Structures are given as C-alpha cells and as structure tokens.
Amino acid sequence: MTNLIYNVKIVNIFFIVFPFTSYVKLQEAFFSERNAAGSWTVIGYKAPGDAAGKTTNFTYVGASISGDEGTSEAAVAGAWTAANNVKLNDCGAGVNWTLDVSPSVATSSEAASLSFSATVANDDCLALTPNFGQIGK
C-alpha cells in the first residue's frame, strides 16, 4: 500500500506543480512586458489535457479576464485552478489548488510588481503537494 500512496504523490506533483510553475513563468514574462496580468490565451499558457484543460484525474481552469485585450491591472482571483476529478488518498474531488494573481502598477516610490497567492483547500490535499504555496515566491 505504501508504494501506491507514493505513486499517487508523484502523479500529483506532475499534474499540479509542473503545470502551475509553467503558468507562473509565463505570467511573469508577460507582466515584464505589459505591467498587467494576462489571460491564459494572451500569455500563451495551455493547460495539460484536452482543449478544455481536462485530463483523467484533473481539470484546470483559468479565470476569465475581460479587460483590455485579456489583460488586467487588478487582482485576478482564481487565475489558475486545478480540480482533482477523483478522490486522491484523503483529498476529496473538487477545486483544491488555486492561484490568485495581483499586479501592481508603478508609483513614484515603488516599481511595478506581480505577486501570487497559492492556496490549497485543506490539509489532506496539501499533503500531496506540500510546497505548492511556495511556488512563484
């Protein structure tokens, strides 16, 4: 049984951490050019799976950004989410990993910046991806 649990952890890291870090890198690159957060399409991000971002175990969804050509200078809640479609160990099915993006414009005393806030729904899901909240920091 230990091997099964270990393999589930590896799968979750592959399906959560890698897609998440790809998104963060693309969002940071886009922000450095436009000083705004961009929609998945605008920044060139494609979630794993089919065109709707669905795989056997996960569904990935990004927030709709309807601002100037798919960009936003305001905070974007749920900019990247991952929902496990099935129960994984003790982590129940549902949207369990969420990333919010907060761009800030430059002022006379501070440069423009982009910050991320990653949250995991509960400790059972956090056990599968213990470093999730540290990515992008």
Radius of gyration: 16 Å
Percent helix? 25-40%
> Low-confidence parts, pLDDT < 50 over ≥5 residues?
none
Q: Could you give a short account of the major beta sheet?
A: 4 strands, antiparallel
How do the strands line up in the largest sheet?
2-4-5-6
Question: What is the element string, with H for helices and E for strands?
Answer: HEHEEEEEH
**How much of the residues is beta strand, in percent?**
25-35%
First CA to last CA: what distance? Answer: 34 Å
> Structural class, please?
alpha+beta
The pLDDT mean sits at 87
Q: What is the total tally of β strands?
A: 6
Globular, elongated, flat, extended or rod-shaped: what is the shape?
globular
What is the total number of structural domains? 1
Number of helices: 3
Question: If you had to describe this structure to a student in words, what would you say it looks like?
Answer:
The N and C termini lie far apart (34 Å). This protein has helices at 2-34, 40-43, 123-126, and strands at residues 37-38, 58-61, 71-72, 76-84, 94-104, 113-120. It is globular. The protein is of the alpha+beta class and 137 residues long. The protein has one domain (2-134). A hairpin with an 8-residue loop joins strand 5 and strand 6 (113-120).
